[in-house]
Amino acid sequence: MKVAILGLGSVGRGVISVLARKDLGIVVTGIADSRSGVMDPAGIDLAAVLTRKAETGRCGEPDILGEDIVKNGDYDVLVEVTPTDIVTGEPALTSIRTALSRGKHVVTSNKGPLALQYTELMRLAEENGVHMRYEATVCGAIPIIQTLQHGLAGNKVHAVYGVLNGTCNYILTRMADEGLTYDQALAEAREMGYAEADPTSDVKGIDTALKLVILANTIWKNGVTLGDVDCTGIDLLTAEALTLAESQNCTIRLIGEVVPERDLLRVSPCILPKKHPLVVRDTLNAVTVVTDMAGAITQVGKGAGSVETASAVIGDLLFIRDCHVRGD
Ligand code: HSE
Known about the structure:
By secondary structure, this protein is of the alpha/beta class. The protein has twelve helices and twelve strands. The chain has a six-stranded mixed beta sheet with strand order 3-2-1-4-5-6, with helices on both faces. It has a six-stranded mixed beta sheet with strand order 8-10-9-7-11-12.
């Protein structure tokens, strides 16, 4: 199976390093970062690309652009892992539309296009007989989309609750445990590469809201968008509030919740007993799905990170490869 990769940030480099060291039957024929690109229908030397990127900041030639690869490249699957734009979804949205229209499968970690145009992108994929997969958009390494689409197939989902943002969880954990100020904890989260390029999206709850929108559309196909989410972040939370929660053997977590039966789509800091299953530490994510047959299922795992998010991308790629083999 031939793959083109757009984006060579933390996720893209994670995907390439995994493909370089595991023999998964995947040949990479195109790679582009924001300043350059490389194409080779016979397969690119991935280790050489990682070295070039580390040494020069570029993966290839300045005259090869991502859009050239998307439009003219020889690939079966486009892996779109560029930074997200929550206002326009671009340039990822155009890349994804172009690839789907060419009859190419798409795997993405990019929340903007999915949260803005979920229904359109799924319809375009269906019309062109290809897969549009996006496990890496929600909860990093946790296979929550697979769980909802396949593992819990046939269940009626009543609600989803979760800690969906690793940066906020890290900040809250460090403030409560180490007495760090909000600014100190945020600076640490940025240094560790968990926060978005603009961390405002994390701390104001917007990143959590985008993930809720993607989950809601995955489960209920209800066409909700960011504007439907009632959203409060952790940016105004004080150390005193955390100390008060602590005095009652509780703590505070930023929780995203969707309960369609109550018309509820909300992100807000919540006080939870310390033993609550959603009280996870550091950059962990936790998500509970409440269903009619399976009851409540909670998954916990790394919500961000290079190789952790690459795990979700690789899972989607192998899902598509296996469908190919079966002729689905
Ligand atoms: N900034 C996001 C987080 C990255 O902290 O959870 C993963 O979506």
